[in-house]
Design a protein that fits this description.
binds adenosine-5'-diphosphate, four-stranded antiparallel beta sheet, alpha/beta, 3 domains, elongated, binds magnesium ion
């Protein structure tokens, strides 16, 4: 949200309750919007951004409300203390529930949330010390330094102050090191693990965070309502919160406020009008909500936030929007890993094997890679090159064989543990977070190079680390030629540029060993030349590079050593010149169904060595599909 709009909103919020002309009903409505927004803000992070659907948030509101109602009425404990107890309880409960249910995937997770939300609901209604279905009444209003917040016009300020604080903190969180990990949960979880991010932990973090926001909302609710009973914490309300999150959209933290406002406003109007139209007192509005939900999901998947910000930008001519264009300010360089001496054995693959059922995708492959060397792994499509990459980087477990990196055994380690040792990679099928900016995508690669916890991200005390990470990302982007696209959404880049982004992201991890899976695919001639130059420079700096690539000219010019695979098996190995004369290799390529291709071209392109390459040769590719 831009500054001007923010100042306007806050000013209106401050003045509203002071105006006698504003009916009490409005204030009450705003109080409920504020409390709902807190819950929905958590859902926005959990479901909208993290992709983890929860129908059960109302149950956490219940934990907050019941804890304070019970402790303050029965044991006479100060409500401010009960807030801490409620948050503590929620932390324990949600971490426990999260650890169990977040392992579920697909449709099972939402079903799981329904299950525990129903359990908690019935627990509230059946425990005699919580008053069973009558609940607990006689909850005292909050007292703020002698001022009673009994009136709606007073507690209003507390509700909205807490909400604004939560919006600010959540916004901070999203634009930080942990936030980038959270934003990659939905579309790039596997990729993020390859950069050392522990996704299971981030899932639990956002689950607990959303639960705590819901708990605070419940605490406020109990002291506003002065009584609690089970019904507002049931599944119906869980669904309503989710609906608010979907309607608001996850494009901005303000989506939470917009979703809550729209749904609560609409609910109120429908409750006024529908009984008159249909002559009934049943909850007809639920039917309208259902229809509306289908409409929203069909026509405006991202919620109404994009429309709201679009209208505002139209009104202000886009002046309010602070679109960043300049590179981030220079910051201290991140420490770099020590490079092994040249000729040190970096990667040692021994009899690596991968079977997918009956298919042997990698058939006892062995090769070695030394420091400061670029090795090419070539072969027709389906030869097992990408699978070999996945075995080295821990994305797939090997069926048998050994992989060692600088003396550490990699087989058996997880992808994120391998990343920690200094292995960086790109993916054949580009994996990035399309809604995140280019620079943020690359900063995700440097995840392991700075420790920034969730609290320091929430409070924005991570400025220094953050600027160092972004500075590093910008440098790597400049290196691969994407310096002009720092703040572009990654999804808007052309495919070739997205591949370059992947290389920059891998470089941001400061790897000793870099694995690139078809980095030049989709690049133009000039871009390929630039890329070759970058890779040569990296080699000179002592980096080891393993390269899968179909562009033969690119491969022949760049690599010191080649391994040729076909049907999972190593066909040949050696320096590029020897390999291209190898009869088995020629046979494998001649066996291709690509009629345009003949052996002379392979020999010609590679025989040209480094200097005599022509553009025609540069575009020469291995035949695809054998
Ligand atoms: P390349 O990268 O050399 O084109 P891949 O390593 O992607 O080849 O694939 C090698 C073989 O393994 C192919 O036949 C492919 O269909 C198969 N394969 C790859 N990944 C899987 C998987 N996850 N499950 C089953 N088969 C797979
Ligand atoms: Mg492949």
């Amino acid at each position: 949200m831009n500054r001007l709009l923010l100042v306007l909103v806050v000013a209106v919020l401050i003045v509203l309750p002071q105006l006698d002309a504003v009916p009490t009903f409005w204030i009450t409505q705003l109080n409920y919007i504020g409390m709902s927004s807190l819950v929905v803000l958590g859902l926005l992070l959990l479901t909208g951004i993290g992709g983890l659907t929860s129908f059960g948030q109302a149950a956490f509101v219940g934990i907050g409300a019941y804890t304070t109602a019970y402790l303050s009425t029965r044991l006479g404990i100060s409500p401010w203390l009960t807030l801490l107890v409620a948050i503590g309880l929620t932390l324990v409960f949600s971490a426990l529930i999260g650890a169990i249910t977040l392992r579920l995937s697909g449709h099972y997770l939402p079903l799981g949330t329904i299950a525990w939300s129903l359990s908690l609901y019935y627990l509230f209604g059946n425990l005699s010390f919580l008053g069973q279905h009558d609940g607990i009444s006689g909850v005292l209003p909050l007292n703020f330094f002698g001022i009673s917040l009994g009136s709606g016009r007073y507690i209003y300020y507390l509700i909205w102050a807490i909400l604004l604080l939560a919006l600010w903190a959540t916004h901070n969180l999203l634009h930080s090191r942990p936030g980038r990990a959270i934003r990659s949960l939905r579309s790039g979880a596997g990729m993020a693990e390859s950069f050392g991010v522990n996704m299971a932990v981030y899932k639990i973090i956002i689950f607990v965070y959303a639960a705590v926001l819901a708990c605070i909302s419940g605490w406020l609710y109990a002291h506003l309502q002065r009584a609690v009973s089970p019904s507002p914490f049931g599944l119906n309300y869980g669904i309503e919160y989710l609906f608010m999150a979907v309607v608001g959209g996850a494009g901005s933290v303000w989506g939470a406020v917009i979703g809550s406002t729209l749904i609560l406003g609409l609910k109120d109007q429908l409750q006024n009008w529908l009984p008159r139209v249909f002559d009934t007192n049943t909850n007809v509005e639920l039917i309208v909500f259902g229809l509306l939900m289908i409409f929203v999901l069909q026509y405006t998947r991202d919620g109404v936030w994009p429309m709201v910000s679009g209208v505002w930008n139209g009104l202000t001519g886009g002046r309010g929007a602070r679109k960043q264009t300049h590179p981030p300010l220079a910051a201290a360089q991140l420490e770099r890993r020590a490079r092994p001496e040249s000729n040190t054995l970096v990667l040692d693959v021994k009899d690596a094997r991968k079977e997918f059922g009956g298919l042997v995708a990698v058939n006892d492959i062995s090769f070695q890679l030394k420091a400061g060397e670029i090795m090419g792994l070539i072969g027709p499509n389906g030869a097992g090159k990408s699978t070999t990459f996945n075995l080295i980087t821990g994305v797939l477990p090997a069926t048998s064989g050994e992989v060692s990196f600088l003396g550490h055994r990699l087989d058996g380690l997880r992808a994120r543990e391998i990343a920690k040792l200094g292995v960086g990679r790109s993916f054949q099928h580009v994996q990035l977070v399309p809604t995140m900016s280019v620079i943020e995508n690359v900063a995700l690669g440097a995840h392991l190079r700075r420790k920034v916890g969730v609290f320091s991200a929430l409070l924005h005390t991570d400025r220094r680390s953050e600027s160092e990470l972004l500075h590093e990302a910008a440098q790597q982007l400049q290196r691969v030629g994407l310096g002009d696209y720092l703040y572009e959404e990654a999804g808007n880049l052309a495919l070739g540029q997205q591949r370059l982004l992947e290389i920059a992201r891998a470089l941001a991890a400061d790897p000793v060993l870099l694995l690139l899976d078809e980095p030049a695919a989709g690049l133009r001639y000039k871009e390929k030349q630039d890329l070759a130059q970058v890779l040569t420079q990296l080699r000179n700096e002592g980096m080891s590079i393993l390269l899968v690539e179909h562009d033969m000219d690119f491969v022949m010019r760049l690599t010191d050593h080649l391994v040729v695979m076909d049907f999972g098996t190593k066909l040949a190995e050696g320096d590029p010149k020897t390999v291209q004369q190898n009869p088995a290799v020629l046979q494998a390529y001649l066996g291709g169904i690509d009629d345009d291709f003949d052996g002379d071209e392979l020999a010609g392109a590679s025989g040209s060595g480094s200097a005599a390459a022509t553009p025609a040769m540069a575009s020469q590719s291995m035949p695809k599909g054998v």
